[in-house]
């Protein structure tokens, strides 16, 4: 517990002192919200008749939270391993679980702030997002989504040996997934084969769950399915992350 506390405090201090990372973690999703919100302001999706903001806001929020989780832990693990920090930690009675749990708690905190800030901006009259009465259900969906994407980030960070490699691999995963999962473009307007392909991507279910909770874009059953699938992704990716975790580039 003392190791976990020390790592959590160190991670928090390092993150808050890096003002550039801190700024872009929260600003990046908001930039997409502003751009898409202004472009599609007042427009509706022809297939469903719903305003674009109902699709855009939950999707961009989901992508932003998942993106932060993947990049955050991926870069840290790569840097700690490259600088032999993980090797030094290994020489102490600190288990892998304490290292990953400290990053997990930090990722949850960042995701919570991201979500609150993002929704607050989306509710402004310029964007016009209207919250559904089931919005609290977005909390468990986001927690499960962050868990799954954090595990994916651990896998990326365990294999990548340079910052450029982390960025390349993470972007290759997250950017195509954003388009294929409906974060930037409504799935209802996509070809059938793309909608089918999206069903094997965790971001699709994070989008569906957050959309159903925030905007009423789905039934309670849909939100439950999204949570169940995200939990499955979290378990599978978490098992792979533990299996592939490396204390140094030599092991």
Q: Can you put this structure into words, describing what you see?
A:
GO terms for molecular function: ABC-type transporter activity. It is found in: Cell membrane; Membrane. Keywords: Antibiotic resistance, Cell membrane, Membrane, Transmembrane, Transmembrane helix, Transport. Residues 20-248 form the ABC transmembrane type-2 domain. The protein has 251 residues and is an all-alpha fold. It has one domain (1-242). 74% of the residues lie in helices and 0% in strands. It is built from 10 helices and no strands. Helix 3 runs parallel beside helix 6 and helix 5 (96-122) packs across helix 6. The longest helix is centred in the N-terminal third of the chain and has 31 residues, at 52-82.
Oligomeric form: single chain
Shape: elongated
Instruction: Please state the average pLDDT score.
Output: 87
Helix and strand composition category: mainly alpha
Number of strands: 0
Structural domain tally: 1
Can you describe this structure in just a few lines?
The protein is mostly helical.
Secondary structure layout:
Blueprint: H1 2-17, H2 19-39, H3 52-82, H4 85-90, H5 96-122, H6 138-159, H7 163-180, H8 192-197, H9 202-215, H10 220-244
For the structure shown, list the relevant keywords:
single chain, 251 residues, mainly alpha, 74% helix, elongated
């Amino acid at each position: 517990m003392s190791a976990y506390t020390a790592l959590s405090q160190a991670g928090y201090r390092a993150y808050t002192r890096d003002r550039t990372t801190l700024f872009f973690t929260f600003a990046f999703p908001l930039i997409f919200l502003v751009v898409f919100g202004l472009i599609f302001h007042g427009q509706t999706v022809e297939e469903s008749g719903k305003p674009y903001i109902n699709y855009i806001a939950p999707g961009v929020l989901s992508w932003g939270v998942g993106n932060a989780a993947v990049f955050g832990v991926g870069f840290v693990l790569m840097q700690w391993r490259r600088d032999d920090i993980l090797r030094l930690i290994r020489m102490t009675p600190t288990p892998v679980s304490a290292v990953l749990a400290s990053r997990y708690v930090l990722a949850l905190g960042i995701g919570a702030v991201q979500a609150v800030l993002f929704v607050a901006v989306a509710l402004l009259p310029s964007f016009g997002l209207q919250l559904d009465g089931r919005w609290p259900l977005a909390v468990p969906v986001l927690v499960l989504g962050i868990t799954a994407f954090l595990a994916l980030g651990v896998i990326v960070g365990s294999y990548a040996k340079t910052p450029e490699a982390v960025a390349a691999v993470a972007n290759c995963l997250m950017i195509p997934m954003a388009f294929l999962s409906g974060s930037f473009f409504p799935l209802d307007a996509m070809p059938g084969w793309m909608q089918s392909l999206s069903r094997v991507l965790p971001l699709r279910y994070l989008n569906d769950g957050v959309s159903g909770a925030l905007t009423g874009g789905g039934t309670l059953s849909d939100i439950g399915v999204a949570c169940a699938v995200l939990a499955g992704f979290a378990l599978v990716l978490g098992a792979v992350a533990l299996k592939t975790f490396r204390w140094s580039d030599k092991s």
